[in-house]
From TrEMBL:
Coiled-coil boundaries: none
Domain F-box associated beta-propeller type residue range list: 16-332
UniProt xrefs under Pfam families: FBA_1 (PF07734)
InterPro entries listed in its UniProt record: A_thaliana_F-box, F-box-assoc_dom_typ1, F-box-assoc_interact_dom
Origin species: Arabidopsis thaliana x Arabidopsis arenosa
Protein name: F-box associated domain type 1
Length: 365
């Protein structure tokens, strides 16, 4: 399915999702009425066939795609068939490993949304002299990158992906001075794209530890959902919460689902990576952690269904991911023609200083 070709609307009782498999994106539908079923609709061919997508982030129907073998990024609206390519100022992939965290968000303006892209790299070693962080933001309107003036009191592991909600983005995080071997993430933090600032660390509804796997999801562009899976006190216990109030500096949680997976007779379902929930059916949906072609549906009272995606999805060893998809009518602004706005002298100085430190860091790895 070429970008620019109209995407089919979801049918009654059906939900659509974007699935990343084999470094490609696929529009897929899932039906939960009666016996669940899944249907692979078509591949989204927005890029050259040689381009490989390694990460995808959803922002209310717009998709930010990180490429495996290309330092550029692409933002696309599959429904309108629009794309925008973004060139970073530098690339840092030691041993081919992308250590950046990414997020797409927007600022509400009088008659349109001003989109921005956040990316950062943060090495939080216990030795202060070895710490390195560089937070920067790309503005779609000015077509410029800007270094953010931040002093992180937080620690965000690059394995904790962002989730966009109402223009802002959220991460699972922890206090910077807490040993990563004890706690990977036990707090929530918001990045406000209007102020271009991080908020305070907000409490999660549990006391997390190193063996706890936490990940976020967006619920109907209104709430956040939080998934906890851990294998310490109760093997592979799964809990889900949703927010009843969510702001930059305050969050309230309500328990949505609890699954005592020790009650399963043999196979223990485990969701690996991103997920989404169906509030009405009270289920969580995500890829099986051990089978890259299987999607798990987990609910109350031992409810469990495993649905196989059938088809040729290319490289079987590639990362899989998914997100709920709702078509968007928001147009992606393209760079304006003519002379481009120039960086300030201060920004040039910050860039040179950070690049010098990054080169030194790479040399010591």
């Amino acid at each position: 399915m070429d970008i620019g070709q109209a995407l089919p609307a979801a049918k009654e009782g059906e939900s659509q999702m974007i699935v990343m498999m084999g470094n490609n994106l696929y529009l897929t539908s899932i039906t939960l009425n009666g016996e669940p079923s899944i249907e692979h609709i078509d591949k989204l061919t927005c890029l050259d066939e040689q381009a490989k997508i390694s990460q995808v982030f959803d922002c209310e129907g717009l998709l930010l795609c990180i490429l495996k073998e290309d330092s550029r990024f692409v933002v696309l609206n599959p429904y309108l068939g629009q794309t925008r390519w973004i060139e970073p100022r530098y690339s840092h992939r030691p041993s081919g490993w992308d250590r950046f965290s990414y997020a797409l968000g927007y600022v509400n303006k009088e008659s349109f949304r001003g989109y921005k892209l956040l990316r950062f790299i943060d090495y939080f070693y216990n030795v202060p002299e070895k710490q390195f962080f560089w937070y920067e933001i790309y503005d779609f309107d000015s077509d410029l990158w800007t270094t953010l003036d931040v002093s992180p009191h937080w620690r965000i592991a690059f394995c904790n992906p962002s989730v966009s909600l109402k223009g802002n983005t959220y991460f699972c995080a922890a206090e910077r001075n807490v040993d990563v071997k004890e706690v990977l993430a036990n707090s929530l933090i918001c990045f406000d794209f209007t102020t271009e600032r991080f908020g305070p660390l907000l409490p999660l509804p549990f006391s997390g530890g190193y063996h706890d796997y936490t990940t976020l999801s967006c619920v109907r562009e209104e709430k956040l959902a939080l998934l906890l899976q851990h294998d310490e006190s109760n093997p592979y216990e799964l809990d889900l919460w949703i927010t009843t109030k969510i702001e930059t500096e305050e969050v309230l949680w309500s328990k949505f689902l609890r699954v005592a997976t020790a009650g399963f007779d043999s196979y223990v379902p485990f969701i690996g990576g991103s997920f989404f929930i169906d509030e009405e059916k009270k289920v969580a949906i995500g890829f099986d952690d051990g089978n890259r072609h299987t999607i798990n549906i987990i609910g109350e009272a031992g409810y469990f269904r495993a649905l196989d995606l059938v088809g040729d999805f290319g490289d079987q060893e590639c990362k899989t991911d998914l997100c709920s998809y709702v078509p968007s009518l928001v147009e992606i602004k393209q760079p304006e023609g003519g002379e481009r706005e120039q960086e300030s002298e201060l920004e040039k100085l910050r860039y040179d200083e950070n690049m010098s430190r990054l080169v030194l860091l790479e040399g010591n790895q």
